[in-house]
Specification:
This protein is an all-alpha fold. Helix content is 68%, strand content 0%. The N and C termini lie far apart (49 Å).
């Protein structure tokens, strides 16, 4: 059991550290994932779109492909090639739809997710959906807690009393990340206890150091975007080689022009450091070995945000 938990923990950290962007942009379901992101981003910006977004995502989640048509998204703007019905029946796509229903954060969305019988997804091929539903519920509940102190208490309670079942890892990871990235300094002991319980040898202290630094940044900047942007320019030799990658991933998940601008500025700085020739590039990489990886991650993030935010 301990070994299994360590493997799960390692997998989660690897995604966070290297940035989930590359996995998220694989071609298999890329079109549908970007379409869902774009629909939810527009619905959150324009509340009247939440109802049609919910209806569309529910049809996908329930596997009702026969009821699919572009007319369902007539109120939304998106690139036509993102509407890929052949992808809709697959479990990872249906799972993402359940998760995105949670991101809508409406009472209707939460009530729907809570009403879904997860036991219908016991087959191995259906397990992505069984894991996505608790994640969607968690996201919906968090979004409805506007008071930061109460939200942090909800995060901490999740870490203290982990949920049961297949979908426990997503809420646990998000609860830890929420405390670390929202400036919840008084809850650092909860993160420390969680990291030491789940981390394998050598990992907990790195996680705690990262969390403490992100907490300080979030607590001392005017916004989370400003905090994450500041993290991009901190020395990875001191804060860990994945520090920038984690910040890039966090910015990529905030679908606003401000987060896009922060990533654009970082990419421009990184490109300037790389210089115009192979010689200048080699010199830059000797000084900062992670520079090229960080630049590529930023470019992937910008490509993703461009599809979600562009007119």
């Amino acid at each position: 059991m301990r070994t299994t938990r360590r493997m799960i923990r390692f997998g989660i950290l690897l995604i966070a550290a290297i940035s989930s962007l590359q996995a998220d942009m694989l071609p298999f379901y890329w079109h549908s994932f970007r379409l869902f992101d774009r629909v939810v981003a527009q619905a959150r910006e324009t509340p009247t779109l939440k109802e049609p977004a919910f209806h569309f995502l529910r049809l996908i989640a329930e596997g009702r492909k026969g009821e699919m048509s572009p007319e369902l998204l007539a109120a939304f703007s998106y690139r036509e090639e993102l509407f890929a019905p052949l992808q809709f029946p697959y479990a990872p796509v249906r799972a993402r739809a359940f998760e995105q229903i949670g991101r809508l954060a409406t009472p209707e969305a939460l009530a729907y997710l809570e009403s879904v019988d997860v036991s219908q997804f016991l087959a191995v091929e259906d397990q992505p959906m069984a894991a996505a539903i608790p994640l969607g519920i968690f996201l919906a509940r968090v979004a409805q807690i506007t008071d930061s102190q109460r939200r942090w208490e909800f995060y901490a309670e999740t870490l203290r009393h982990p949920p049961e079942g297949l979908g426990r890892d997503g809420p646990l990871w998000l609860a830890e990340r929420g405390l670390c990235t929202e400036g919840a300094l008084s809850f650092l002991p909860d993160v420390e206890a969680y990291a030491r319980r789940w981390g394998s040898q050598g990992e907990p202290e790195d996680d705690i150091r990262y969390c403490k630094e992100m907490m300080n940044l979030a607590a001392t900047h005017v916004s989370r975007i400003a905090a994450f942007e500041a993290a991009l320019y901190m020395d990875t030799k001191t804060h860990g080689k994945y520090f920038h990658a984690r910040a890039i991933n966090l910015l990529s998940e905030i679908y606003t022009k401000e987060s896009q601008a922060a990533l654009t500025r970082f990419a421009q700085v990184a490109e300037a450091k790389m210089g115009p020739t192979q010689e200048t590039r080699n010199a830059a990489l000797r000084q900062d070995p992670s520079l090229w990886t960080d630049l590529e991650s930023a470019r992937l993030a910008l490509a993703k945000l461009s599809l979600i935010l562009s007119p």
